[in-house]
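Incident log, support desk, overnight shift.

02:14 A customer reports that sequence design results differ from what the structure should imply. Their input is reproduced verbatim below. On-call engineer (initials T.W.) acknowledged and began investigating.
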């Protein structure tokens, strides 16, 4: 009888275990659903928004926002939180695209996605690939098959490691999140990239014009093997055969050294910071002395195996990686860009870069063109993210300085145009910025901590009025050679301040 009772009890338990497990699982899903609903409600309440008296500009932002958010992946995918930053059909993200899209993504609230995606690239640097990471990772947390067969055969543009260092710096500056510059994964990636990677790919400044074009590919290989002939491309320009070096790769290396020097300084390592800054200067000097074409007054951008310079694509990255100091030479690059027939990937850089470099009318034209339904391939993810960055950082001139907890504003648009961005999350705080054309700006601190506001106005002003009270202004040289005037004021939590000029 006792055995029968025990057997019956065991049977009862076995019957009920699946039921109990079902309710446990359903409880977890229900709580997860509640969490998601709360998250979506919170995001809906705080999602960045943009308004303008220029309806075409407002429509462009709204299209870009809707399109970019459409590319946000499922955080439950094996790779974790992610967004598309490659051809949409691949369900993947590549280093160059992510590094370009990351600030636009941050503006749209994709903080978790940025941190996760960059960490994947940082973690996958490998000696077996000569210190390359994966060029492209898909939502299944695998290297995309379109770019990778094995550690011997894969696609990789050598700009990538240096660009990723720059992206981490930019995200740190925008968010104030120190994990971007202190995480051991990041430090390891930087040290390997600026030392072993440079050595393995023969990228020391003295070797740039004498290096083999594919130093880690067998001398004898199948020319039809796409991966072997693309294992370490010395440029973001991918359609030029027999390429030894490019100006865009030199600019990327320069920015990699500059960014790591900045990061080391932020981490109080002054000696090493100075060392990497000096290295960066050598690449800049090389570009100016070897690549500027005096006769034609422009930069050569490509260098072939036959020892000849050529002028092709890639000049946009000389602006992107901040290697050019001479405003007149920058203007030459800009003139060449706006006169050329560009693909949408290159065009997507221009709204931000053109506003930054004093070509506001052209920047505005590209915003409207990129958001126009008639534009071919406007659905490529970089386009919508580039428009977002172009409007917020470029047109509205919103730039954070994490070191001094300062947010700068500078209207770069047309006269008599009003703009407002609300619920913008920057330096771990929500703000609202409203420009009344060229003469007045309002900032509202919607966060729970005070911020420093550097209010800027184009032109020379001795006085800027803060809530109607005169304050002595300082003059600042813009990177395009123009002058603007600024004042620094503290904006307390919940406070709104107005700055204006007469």
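02:41 Re-run completed on a clean worker. Output:
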């Amino acid at each position: 009888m006792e055995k029968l009772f025990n057997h019956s009890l065991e049977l009862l338990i076995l019957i009920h275990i699946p039921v109990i497990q079902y309710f446990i699982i359903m409880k977890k899903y229900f709580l997860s659903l509640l969490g998601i609903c709360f998250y979506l409600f919170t995001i809906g309440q705080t999602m960045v928004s943009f308004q303008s008296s220029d309806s075409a500009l407002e429509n462009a932002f709204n299209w870009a926002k809707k399109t970019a958010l459409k590319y946000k992946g499922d955080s439950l995918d094996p790779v974790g939180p992610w967004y598309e930053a490659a051809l949409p059909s691949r369900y993947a993200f590549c280093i160059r695209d992510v590094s370009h899209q990351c600030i636009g993504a941050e503006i749209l609230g994709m903080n978790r996605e940025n941190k996760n995606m960059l960490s994947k690239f940082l973690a996958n640097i490998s000696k077996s690939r000569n210190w390359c990471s994966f060029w492209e990772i898909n939502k299944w947390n695998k290297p995309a098959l379109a770019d990778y067969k094995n550690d011997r055969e894969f696609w990789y543009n050598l700009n990538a490691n240096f660009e990723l260092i720059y992206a981490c710096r930019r995200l740190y500056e925008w968010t104030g999140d120190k994990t971007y510059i202190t995480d051991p994964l990041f430090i390891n990636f930087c040290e390997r990239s600026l030392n072993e990677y440079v050595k393995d790919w023969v990228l020391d400044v003295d070797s740039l014009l004498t290096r083999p074009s594919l130093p880690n590919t067998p001398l004898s290989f199948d020319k039809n093997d796409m991966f072997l002939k693309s294992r370490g491309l010395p440029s973001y320009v991918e359609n030029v055969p027999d390429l030894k070096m490019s100006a865009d790769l030199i600019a990327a290396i320069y920015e990699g050294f500059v960014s790591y020097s900045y990061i080391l300084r932020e981490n109080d390592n002054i000696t090493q910071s100075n060392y990497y800054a000096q290295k960066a200067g050598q690449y800049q000097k090389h570009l100016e002395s070897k690549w500027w074409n005096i006769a034609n007054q422009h930069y050569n951008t490509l260098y072939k195996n036959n020892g000849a310079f050529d002028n092709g694509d890639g000049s946009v990255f000389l602006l992107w990686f901040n290697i050019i100091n001479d405003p007149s030479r920058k203007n030459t690059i800009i003139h060449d860009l706006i006169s050329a027939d560009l693909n949408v990937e290159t065009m997507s850089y221009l709204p931000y870069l053109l506003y930054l470099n004093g070509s506001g009318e052209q920047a505005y034209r590209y915003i409207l063109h990129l958001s126009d339904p008639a534009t071919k391939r406007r659905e490529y993810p970089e386009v919508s993210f580039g428009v977002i960055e172009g409007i917020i950082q470029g047109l509205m001139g919103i730039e954070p300085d994490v070191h001094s907890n300062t947010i700068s504003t500078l209207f770069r648009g047309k006269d008599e145009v009003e703009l407002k961005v609300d619920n913008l999350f920057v330096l771990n705080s929500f703000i609202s910025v409203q420009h009344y054309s060229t003469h007045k700006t309002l900032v509202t601190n919607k966060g729970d901590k005070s911020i420093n506001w550097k209010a800027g106005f184009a032109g020379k002003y001795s006085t800027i009025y803060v809530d109607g009270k005169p304050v002595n202004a300082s003059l600042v040289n813009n990177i395009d050679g123009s002058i603007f005037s600024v004042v620094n004021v503290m904006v307390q939590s919940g406070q709104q301040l107005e700055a204006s000029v007469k």
